[in-house]
Batch of 3 targets.
Target 1
Amino acid sequence: MTSLHQRIFEDIEQKIMSGTWPPGQRIPAEHELEVTYGCSRMTVSKALSALAARGMIVRRRRAGSFVASPQIDRTVMDISDIGTEAKVAGHAYSHRILSRRIERLSAVDAAVIEETAGAEVLRVECLHIVDGRPNALEKRMILLDAVPQARDETFETSPPGSWLLDQVPWSEAKHIIRAVAADAATAKLLTIERHAACLLLTRQTWQNGRTVTFVEITHPGDRYQFAGVFHPSK
Amino acid sequence: MTSLHQRIFEDIEQKIMSGTWPPGQRIPAEHELEVTYGCSRMTVSKALSALAARGMIVRRRRAGSFVASPQIDRTVMDISDIGTEAKVAGHAYSHRILSRRIERLSAVDAAVIEETAGAEVLRVECLHIVDGRPNALEKRMILLDAVPQARDETFETSPPGSWLLDQVPWSEAKHIIRAVAADAATAKLLTIERHAACLLLTRQTWQNGRTVTFVEITHPGDRYQFAGVFHPSK
DNA sequence: TAGTGGTCTAGACCACGGG
DNA sequence: CCGTGGTCTAGACCACTAT
């Protein structure tokens, strides 16, 4: 038996995650939810406080509660440029789409991401350039079942990562970070020496248990790092 | 004006962080705190629930609430062995202390960790061995002002990281992950080739704004990875 | 069995800030 | 101004579990 405040929490979480209540949407006031669920205000308040604590909603006196904007990537770690860590702002950023094609998921890839083979995926390769130097090579798969609107997107104006964050709320992400030696093709694209140490970030993102995207990002090891500040628990 | 449940939260947090209430210590029952603070049970409950949500205490019916054990490193990411990821248990672990000495913080090191030069630090180098292969080289500084009991510790029975977690609760940690090429000395200790790609994890830990320890851990890139599952916010 | 936390109620007063 | 969320009360019943 799940508690009532938990059920209210999950109901609202579901409406936000599914996009039924988009960012900025006003949530029913506490008093309205009291009536809807036939419970006291404390119970509603507990659920809404929990949602606010997780950053899913923003609560403002007199105005009401609103669905928060999609969270940016900093959840895990900030990605900072070793050479220019100081000047947080002022980066010249651009990107280049190297390739883009739609195919069906091979058995091998399906096993890796634990989805069913044959599903339609959009594969995109993208080079990220900061201050004139390539700083990341991105190889991405987007599951078209989960993100059908990606089918006709060229990613010319917005790179795949940012574009996806705007389109799809995510509920879970798994990250793996490894150190690898650059292969010939990667070395050439990143203008580094072959076998140079690189950071390889693999990220798989889900929405309600369904894979949205799977991406491998290779950074030159001498120019980039991952950094994050954490507090216990959470 | 800070709310009462917040004040209760902070009072207890302080007692835990300062070590006044060590791990395992029983916390006064809700009813006792009602009397102490002269408030209702709901107010106490709100504070204790928040502490439990942050993992600082564990609550058990009939038994009471207890200060949680210091959290293990998984806060950031699990460190898993690529080759033996499957067998979560069953690793043969051992460690070897390579060096141990007390010195005063040089100006350069002081600048790096943003502490005052001249402070006494214990420097320890430690090799971690899993299933017969070296898997990490740890170079650590422990601030003796913050952890005086480290002065006479040999770390023979427990490696510095685990020992510290048992001794000192931490309130903040900063991690940086880089990819680097192994230098000659590191390569020899880790039995890998020189210039092989390695993951370099740098971690600085604070307690109430004071640096407790600063550590650099080098992992062979082909054998290790960092992985973590995350949810939005946090 | 008895003490503890988990949940919930039906009120209340207040502070904030948008209209 | 006045609706909203923030906080708090003084109870209540129940589930769990150590003893």
Target 2
Amino acid sequence: MEEPMYIKIHNQIKREIESHIYKVGSRIPSERQLALKFGVSRMTLRQAIKTLEDEGILEQRLGSGTYVANQKVQEKMSGIMSFTDITHANGQIPSSKLISYRVGKPSLSEMERLHLAKDQTILRMERIRYADNVPICYEVVTIPHKLILGMSKENISTHLYRTLEQNGYEIGRVTEHISAAIANENAARLLNAKKGEALITRLQVTELSSGEPFEYTRASYVADRFEFTFSK
Amino acid sequence: MEEPMYIKIHNQIKREIESHIYKVGSRIPSERQLALKFGVSRMTLRQAIKTLEDEGILEQRLGSGTYVANQKVQEKMSGIMSFTDITHANGQIPSSKLISYRVGKPSLSEMERLHLAKDQTILRMERIRYADNVPICYEVVTIPHKLILGMSKENISTHLYRTLEQNGYEIGRVTEHISAAIANENAARLLNAKKGEALITRLQVTELSSGEPFEYTRASYVADRFEFTFSK
DNA sequence: CAGTGGTCTAGACCACAAA
DNA sequence: TTGTGGTCTAGACCACTGA
């Protein structure tokens, strides 16, 4: 027996929800019925349900039953509001321009952050993000090439996370570092700012649920035009 | 029986950890021993331990035992690690110097952020924070005077949150804005930095659980010496 | 009322860690 | 090898929900 029974049951119920056999908001069979169906004790069945509850997929109501939970707010990308969220919240229209997209050898910092050997290749994308057509952010995204073999440039550059999940990867921990810097000539030109202006810098490393890092992003935001907001 | 047994056991173990009967990093008795001690089945005892694990208070290691987890990051102050936490994590010693502490009239921005009428007075504190005696941060904290009547300068300036809670106030939502700026002459002097250097700026408004804002902080960090880190 | 989830028992066998 | 946590069983009684 490779996996524990309650994990198998967890996966099975999750599949049934994803294939809409159990619909959002509806009640699934009772613990006793499911235990019978899967041929396990009720305690074991409860263990499976508990893990689904922890993931926000199921919701139990005392005396009433177990329900498929509504989709929760995506909290995947850390406590910070994403660029798209913030611009939308401000009534602005976000857009972005891909300025490079190349496979090549990793730099030292990329090797370190992504746990790469020096013979492994990476995909590196550069992008400018805009709010109402004003440049706000310059970002460089690096991804191990082997993770995205066979995926289209279109999918990778416009919705990387969704594309990875559709290919069976699961996103795990996200770590971010935020600091500040002075705009050099290059950044000033790309962002239509002045050399010597203040930039917010952001490093982000995203891992798969296996713990393997899959994305390393370095972004610079024009401080006059952007701020990070979060509340708790 | 008011509370379930596993909650009682949870509380009891938590108390024993807080009173240092079980020390941080040390192993607590095995599940079987604790079940015997509390006169419950092992499954029930495991349920108690599971809740403590979910809170990050205990940590179980297969084949080895159950351990008191290291202190987690204070989550009170939003997802960001606090200054004290970060310096500690880096093996540095945090300290701070109060450079002013005065009651007076609020500025326009203070009136707005703290929802004050213009005849209400405020307490304004300025402080420099250090890591290993290197200045890292200059911050200005403003508090409505009426909220802290009768509290000592010592208590307010060194542990404001604890003092407020001891006086019956409950801390509510925290909102932060992070951006960047260029050091002016004054900031450079206070932080032993150069004019034109990059600073991280942080605005924070903290509310009581009633929704009334009680603290407005403006802080500037020397970007070369500090970064905000958080992960999810 | 009948059915549900919440709690609890007293065992059992397993895989893993440390000695 | 011994002791640990991880999993699992086949019951039980309770409090709660909803008809």
Target 3
Amino acid sequence: MVEKPASQADVGGEVEAHKERKGLWSPEEDERLYTRITRHGVSTWSSVAQLAGLRRSGKSCRLRWMNYLRPDLKKEPISKREEETIISLQKSLGNRWSVIAAKMPGRTDNEIKNYWNSRIRKRQNASPAGGKGDSGCAKQQGDLPAADDKASVLAGPRAKEPVSSMASGATAPPVPARFPLFACQLLGCGGGAAAIAAAGTTESTTTHENNRAGSESDASVGNGSGGGGDGREGHYYYCAVDGDIDMIHLMSFDDLLEYPASDLLMDAWDRNGLYSTNTGNSVD
DNA sequence: AATGGGCCCAACCGCGACTTT
DNA sequence: TAAAGTCGCGGTTGGGCCCAT
């Protein structure tokens, strides 16, 4: 993907040494950017470009990191379940790709936007009946309105909201220590998984896959699945994602309790780190 | 084997919001 | 308070790949 003609890849070339480069990134540029960010973090993106010795705009560096180099990105294709999430969230949030991406750990807004534009929208246009023709889960999606609605509520009416800022690298707010850590999964393919965890700490156990760069000094680096406040006083949520849960909904404990117990699979950890599975809706 | 069209994805562009001075 | 700098978002584009002809 990053291959390019040699004429465009002369990172250190003398010709046009001061001219900003555009186009595809070479492996060497990727290496420089990755090394720079993982070792020193990000102060400003324009300085990253400079200090990494790249003739790229800060904007371009940011885009490359966010969409390709970030260690917490998923490399595998978007799954059926994730596709359903995209459809569901797009329906409730519109084309707020960054907000949608913030609810899908490891996925970027660009990736989701591309996926939507190239596949889902096209398919929906092809089927006049509202674009649900191909999904055997359409009914279940309709039967689980809460997931969408809650996502919508938590996203809030404003353009700026905390989930989005987490995806952009903001620091997670402290999570109240009194809550046990748990993750739950809504039954039914339409609803997909709902995973949520409130932890005694904001670290390690709740992050998705890895958070290598996130351990660096700058908060903008590789924040994993993140977490944050839900915008309502006194409520915090935190995401927990494991290999089987490839998408999440964020909700408060109160929101979660609105689901009937039969709709929930609960994997739970207590605050001592003890794990049990399918414990029903007893989140307390 | 050549080629034309469609698809997919990485990256750019323009703009608004936010932050800093 | 205003201006400049920076960031982040959504829309769009360009090019490579794949497949049918």
